[in-house]
Every structure is written in structure tokens, then in C-alpha cells.
């Protein structure tokens, strides 16, 4: 009888990491109970207008205010907001490094395989930030692809990366920055020609860039969906996959917040309009299964 071969170090480490991830996901069950007794942690990426560190050192933003307005009626008043890179949010939730994602996170089917989602909080289109006068006349991703030389800045791990690829933009012309402010600095320094982010972030960057020769590219042609209509992305909170009771309570309170008008009142403080509210019948389940 042959002796069993011992696992290689890399295989052993891989197995340990897999078991740790499974254990972490199991351990987050019961967030309602945990939140009421210990509080919760919600990972953020320090980006305006979603969740960011204000000038007074406190964590503020549309997503932070809405999250507290959802959780407090559920008896959860203590929420810690650890900062991480945007690309680390989904892996961080999957590994149990925090209980939910408090940043603005698009719902997409690939992420749905790894994490759960609340129902949508806002909808968003894309937007371009360019040098004053829009010298390359860029009004869509198709324009960037047709140019052949335009360098587009966006964020790793975001929907915009795939959208750029699907639109035919060469990977060599896509420059990735962890922070939107780094992308803005690259545009101001002529290291890129256009910054592509969700419209809310572009509005925030314009405020930061006040007095410098940059502008929003208008009009802007949204990428089409499968039916040829302008495509919208939907922001939601990232939730663990294995806690349906928490997800149900969270979504019920989100619906109440919207029905009362308080959701829109919070959003308007950060430059959103009623146009950014998704249709009330759009759910995370629909977006995950499309």
C-alpha cells in the first residue's frame, strides 16, 4: 500500500485560506443579533460622495447617512467604517474582514456569485471628465475607442473597466487608479486624456477641481443595454450571502426610508436628484439574474 503524499506548502496554504473563507462566511450569520449587541463594521473606500473622511476627520457621505438611517430603526447604533481600497471591498466581505460594504457598489452578476446585495439605493450612469474644451471631442466610450490614442483613467475592480473593454478600448489605453483623486491629478498633469467614473463621482471631482481647466464632457452617450436603451448601473450595499433575515430587514427599512421621502432628502444633500432614484420595483435579485 502506497503512503499518502503530504500536501505541498502552497496546497496546504491554499486549503487553509479556503477553509478560513468558508468559516468567515459562516461566522457572519445573525448580523441583526450581532449588530444589536456588538455593532457592525462596514467597509468603505474613502470616496465622495459615497463614504469619505470629512475635513473634521469624521466619516461622512451619502451612503454613511443612509446606512445609519437604515440600521438605527433595527436597533443597531454602533457602526465602524474601516477604510480599504475599492478593489478590496468584495474580497474583504467574502473573507469576513467586515460585516457589510458601506461604499457605493454596483450590482453585477459576477459579484453576486461572491456576495449578497441590498436592493438598489441609487442608479447611476457613466460620465467623462476632460480637459477644458474637450480637445479630443470625447463624448462616449466609442469615441475613445475610435481615437486609438486617447488614454482613459478609471478604477481597478470597477464596472468601468469591463465597459471600456467591451467598447473596444485597448487595454494599453486604460490607466487604473485606486482613488478618483489620483485619476483627476493624472488628467491635470496630461498623463491621461479622460477620466471615466460614475456620474456622482465626476460631480464630486469637479468640485475638487474648481479653478483648474477641466470640465464634464457633455453631452455624454451612455452605453446601451441589451435592448439598445441607455444602460443604468445600480448602487447598493454589499451584504453577506448567508444571512437572509438581515437582508430582509435591511431591505424593508430601505423601502420605508424611500417611501417617506427621507432617502431623497439625504441624497440631495450630496448633489443627487430624483433622477438618481431607481424605479421602486428594481431589486437586487433582478439585477443579479440578468
Features:
alpha/beta; 290 residues; five-stranded mixed sheet; 12 helices; 2 domains; disordered N terminus; D-Maltodextrin-Binding Protein, domain 2
- CATH superfamily caption of the largest domain: Periplasmic binding protein-like II
CATH topology of the largest domain: D-Maltodextrin-Binding Protein, domain 2
Question: Pairing-aware structural class of the strands and helices?
Answer: alpha/beta
Count every helix, treating DSSP H or I runs of 4 or more residues as helices.
Answer: 12
The coarse overall form would be globular
Distance between the termini: 52 Å
Signal peptide: 1-29
Domain Solute-binding protein family 3/N-terminal: 39-274
Family: Belongs to the bacterial solute-binding protein 3 family.
InterPro entries: Ectoine_EhuB (IPR014337), Solute-binding_3/MltF_N (IPR001638)
Please give the structural blueprint.
Blueprint: H1 9-27, H2 31-37, E1 40-43, E2 52-53, E3 59-60, H3 62-71, E4 79-80, H4 89-94, E5 100-106, H5 109-112, E6 116-117, E7 122-124, E8 126-131, H6 141-147, E9 152-154, H7 159-166, E10 174-176, H8 180-188, E11 194-198, H9 199-208, E12 214-216, E13 233-239, H10 244-259, H11 262-268, H12 284-288
Parallel strand pairs: 1-4, 1-5, 9-10, 9-11
Antiparallel strand pairs: 2-3, 5-13, 6-13, 7-13, 8-11, 8-12
Helix pairs in contact: 3-10
Amino acid at each position: 500500500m502506497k503512503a499518502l503524499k503530504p500536501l505541498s506548502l502552497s496546497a496546504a496554504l491554499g486549503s487553509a485560506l479556503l477553509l478560513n473563507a468558508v468559516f468567515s462566511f459562516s461566522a457572519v450569520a445573525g448580523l441583526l443579533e450581532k449588530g444589536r449587541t456588538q455593532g457592525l463594521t462596514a467597509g468603505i473606500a474613502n470616496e465622495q460622495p459615497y463614504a469619505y473622511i470629512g475635513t473634521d476627520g469624521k466619516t461622512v457621505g451619502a451612503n454613511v447617512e443612509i446606512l445609519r438611517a437604515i440600521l438605527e430603526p433595527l436597533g443597531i447604533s454602533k457602526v465602524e467604517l474601516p477604510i480599504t481600497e475599492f478593489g478590496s471591498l468584495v474580497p474583504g466581505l467574502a473573507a469576513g474582514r467586515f460585516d457589510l460594504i458601506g461604499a457605493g457598489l454596483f450590482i453585477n452578476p459576477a459579484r453576486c456569485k461572491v456576495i449578497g446585495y441590498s436592493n438598489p439605493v441609487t442608479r447611476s450612469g457613466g460620465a467623462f471628465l476632460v480637459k477644458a474644451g474637450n480637445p479630443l471631442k470625447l463624448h462616449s466610450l466609442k469615441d475613445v475607442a475610435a481615437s486609438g490614442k486617447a488614454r482613459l483613467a478609471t478604477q481597478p475592480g470597477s464596472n468601468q473597466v469591463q465597459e471600456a473593454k467591451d467598447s473596444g478600448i485597448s487595454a494599453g489605453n486604460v490607466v487604473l487608479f485606486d482613488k478618483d483623486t489620483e485619476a483627476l491629478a493624472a488628467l491635470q498633469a496630461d498623463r491621461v486624456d479622460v477620466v471615466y467614473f460614475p456620474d456622482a463621482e465626476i460631480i464630486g471631482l469637479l468640485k475638487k477641481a474648481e479653478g483648474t481647466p477641466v470640465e464634464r464632457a457633455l453631452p455624454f452617450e451612455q452605453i446601451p443595454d441589451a435592448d439598445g436603451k441607455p444602460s443604468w448601473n445600480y448602487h447598493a450595499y454589499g451584504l453577506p450571502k448567508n444571512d437572509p433575515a438581515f437582508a430582509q430587514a435591511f431591505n424593508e427599512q430601505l423601502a420605508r426610508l424611500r417611501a417617506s421621502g427621507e432617502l431623497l432628502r439625504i441624497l440631495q444633500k450630496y448633489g443627487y436628484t430624483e433622477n438618481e432614484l431607481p424605479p421602486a420595483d428594481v431589486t437586487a435579485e433582478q439585477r443579479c439574474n440578468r
